[in-house]
Amino acid sequence: MTSHHDITANAADTVQADHTLRGFIGYVMKRCFNSVQADLARELEALDLRMLTFSALIVVVDNAGLRQSELAQALSVERPNLVVIVDELEKRGLIKRTQVPTDRRAYALTPTAAGKELYHTALKVVQDHEAKILAGLTDEQVRTLRDALKSIQKSADG
Amino acid sequence: MTSHHDITANAADTVQADHTLRGFIGYVMKRCFNSVQADLARELEALDLRMLTFSALIVVVDNAGLRQSELAQALSVERPNLVVIVDELEKRGLIKRTQVPTDRRAYALTPTAAGKELYHTALKVVQDHEAKILAGLTDEQVRTLRDALKSIQKSADG
DNA sequence: GATAATGGTTATCAGGTATAATTATTATCC
DNA sequence: GGATAATAATTATACCTGATAACCATTATC
């Protein structure tokens, strides 16, 4: 590339301007996750799903009858934020809210037939995406990666 | 905990409700990064910095004189979104916008004395945070983690 | 010199995350 | 058994991040 000849612009030509930041795993992880998230969002768009609506659907199908508070806890989403997600899935006819007979405050979430069907196709999409982003790694590396992420989260959660 | 006796609630008691999702590295990474991000935000709050303002400050100090577009590219932030970040750092007297003599459209970003000072204290805070979250890992594991994240990002950006 | 491209800006929007407050219901405890 | 506390879901709100379109001034291209 062309180099600047004034003394102020001494960077961004040869070395990476964010060299210091790249020393931090947190920064590398953020950049990595942003790329993964953007790519997955593109692929889920075909199914009109986002990461969160996808995740919620998976958990509801796997745990038919769980309550909203349980779903919120499973996904680490605050209850207020989960409401709109459940609203969206219900509006699309993928899950249903049904009263829990033993607790009239709570709603049990159950998937519809359409929800169960989308579950399988969406799972396939995400599995393919996962295979794509892990293509350059060995099973051993992936195992180390997974363990490391778990360890880091534990430390960060204190 | 207490178990439900109606047939609908068959989960979330013994097994993890998000078991399927935990099979995905993307999901594990999201959960991990959220924890790291939240923890770091708490620690940077004392310096009145966020991850993005911190990152921008670091890059400007390391690359005095770079232009906003270069900073945006270095951080993978869209130019419009960078404006408010530069505004904030400038308003706080941490960096300065100065006209580039050879290109009157562009601004060269340079740190002030206060900016350089905050650079060092903030870097210390983040380094400590980094040490904390990596405490459970060996150097070898961290190296594998870093390489894996880079590989994944490359595949996702593909 | 007309046209295209670039640097910075404004405006706007969608999405994710967090908190406070409200209502209805259930659990606790004196 | 009745007052009080806790819980499930909701509404409203706010902040941060990320993305896009449109604009102005300036520079590069042809």
Biggest protein-protein contact in the assembly: A-B, 81 and 81 residues
How many strands of chain A? 3
Please report the distance between the alpha carbons of the first and last residues of chain A: 46 Å
CATH superfamily of chain A: Winged helix-like DNA-binding domain superfamily/Winged helix DNA-binding domain
What is the spatial order of strands in the main beta sheet of chain A? 1-3-2
- Summed up, the domain count of chain A is 1
Question: What is the gyration radius of chain A calculated from CA atoms?
Answer: 21 Å
Please give the CATH class of chain A. Mainly Alpha
Give a description of the structure.
With 158 residues, chain A is mainly alpha-helical. Chain A has a single domain (28-157), classed as Winged helix-like DNA-binding domain superfamily/Winged helix DNA-binding domain (Arc Repressor Mutant, subunit A), CATH 1.10.10. The first copy, chain A, is built from seven helices and three strands; from the N terminus they run αααβααββαα. In chain A, strand 2 (95-100) and strand 3 form a beta hairpin. In chain A, helix 3 crosses helix 5 (79-91) and helix 4 (68-75) packs across helix 5 (79-91). The longest helix of chain A is centred in the N-terminal third of the chain and has 21 residues, at 25-45. Chain A is globular, with a radius of gyration of 21 Å. Chains A and B meet through helix 1, helix 2, helix 3, strand 1 and helix 4 of A and helix 1, helix 2, helix 3, strand 1 and helix 4 of B. The structure holds a DNA duplex (30 and 30 nucleotides).
